[in-house]
Amino acid sequence: MDVASPNTQAVEISLAKGSVIFRVVVGLVVLVAGLGMWRSSPYPVFGGFVALFSVCMLYFGFRLLVDASPGLVLNEQGLAINDKIGSGGIVRWNDVSGLSLTRYGHDYQLVVNVKRPESYLARGGAIYRLMNSLSAALFGSPVRINAGLLDCNRNDLLRVANEFRARYSGRAD
User: With contact defined as beta carbons under 8 Å apart, do 70 and 12 qualify?
Assistant: First the structure.
């Protein structure tokens, strides 16, 4: 899907189901390998950890597969991020100080630099707070979106997000 120009009031970007399916298949392969290592290896604990990690991958992958909501919505208020792919919730344009793409592993992350990071670090339950803290340590901001899980070109995503920010960041909340 191509990201349209921000001449519209809102842009909804769906989740890239093909990418999610690939990750689920990889999770299944890793699960089989982990169980094999657990059963026949002189290091069964390592195999158990690999299997447990793959079960977590599969859990989050299947949650994404059944999720019909968009991965990201850009509108006049800000970015509405699906909580299954990043720091969920709405990030208002007035709170955004910059946007950038950062490669991490084989994926690109849309990093949303915010003026008050502490309010985003405190969002959600314990696991989400931990993930937000890791995001802040790795990317310099607690708000990031895995662009590989969105059904759009990452460079178009950055361009359109910056255009929305330029258009709406001066408005009062």
Answer: yes
Tokens of 122: 């405190």
> In this model, does residue 2 exceed pLDDT 70?
no
- How high does pLDDT run on average in the chain? 89
Token pair listed for 109: 């992350």
Which helix H or strand E contains 92, and what residues bound it?
Answer: strand 89-92
CA–CA separation, 88 and 123 (whole Å) = 8
In this predicted structure, the answer to whether residue 35 has a pLDDT above a threshold of 80 is yes
Q: Give the integer Cα–Cα distance in Å for 144 and 100.
A: 10
Does a structural domain hold residue 6? no
Question: C-alpha angle with apex 170: 164 to 173, nearest 5 degrees?
Answer: 95
Quick check: 85 and 64 in contact, CB under 8 A? Answer: yes
User: Whole domain around residue 79: which residue ranges?
Assistant: 11-15+70-168
Overall number of domains in the chain: 2
Q: Which residues does residue 100 pair with via DSSP β-bridges, in sequence order?
A: 111
Residue 4 lies in a domain: no
